[in-house]
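Example 9 (inverse folding). The structure is encoded as follows.
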């Protein structure tokens, strides 16, 4: 018997809930000294930096004051530093520090270990299914042009 396929809106509602819950669970097992917004900003700075604050806000799909507040808190913790843009001295860019890289790796390691333990408890077929689903979700996000706000 072939399983029924959910309507796109029903599947969307189910996926939204499970992704939200998974994200919350991963945050609970990650770093406690920085907020999810700060982790996201730090990851973006690592991946695309050095960045002007406006570029960071655009990558993160947040308002510039939100990016500025996150960077200020990250800077206070020594996780990023601001410096003059070499191509335009009027502009400041933000870059990740070695302490920021260490924090990100520690956070990634903690969440990877947590999820890895959960994935050890499922079958090979289920892992293959999740691998396909991860690829599909990545493609959906790429078609969107990045993560949604």
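The amino acid assigned to each position is listed next.
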């Amino acid at each position: 018997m072939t399983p029924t396929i959910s309507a796109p809106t029903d599947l969307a509602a189910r996926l939204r809930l499970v992704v939200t819950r998974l994200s919350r669970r991963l945050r609970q097992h990650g770093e406690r000294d920085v907020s999810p917004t700060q982790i996201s900003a730090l990851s973006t700075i690592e991946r695309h930096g050095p960045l002007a604050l406006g570029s960071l806000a655009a990558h993160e799909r947040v308002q510039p004051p939100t990016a500025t507040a996150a960077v200020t808190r990250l800077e206070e913790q020594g996780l990023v530093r601001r410096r003059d843009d070499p191509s335009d001295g009027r502009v400041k860019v933000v870059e990740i520090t070695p302490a920021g890289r260490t924090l990100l790796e520690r956070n990634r390691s903690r969440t990877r270990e947590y999820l890895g333990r959960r994935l050890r408890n499922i079958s090979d077929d289920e892992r293959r299914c999740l691998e396909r689903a991860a690829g599909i979700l990545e493609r959906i996000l790429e078609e969107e042009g990045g993560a949604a706000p």
